[in-house]
User: Fold Flp/Fap pilin component from Roseovarius litorisediminis.
Amino acid sequence: MIKFIKNFAKDEDGAVTVDWVVLTAAVVGLGIAGVTTVKKGVGTLASTISKDVGATTTGVE
Assistant:
């Protein structure tokens, strides 16, 4: 049993997988942070554009 634990501790096969999982989590976290940051501004901009387009199309008949 002790030999198994020593071999398991020396084994590095899963280390690369852990690195990729951490890197992927960081990228996803940054993506969510970016979306959260610009979410309100995009909603306001879309509302403004909608109002302007509506005012332009209703004034031309």
Remarks:
- Residues 30 and 36 are 10 Å apart (CA to CA).
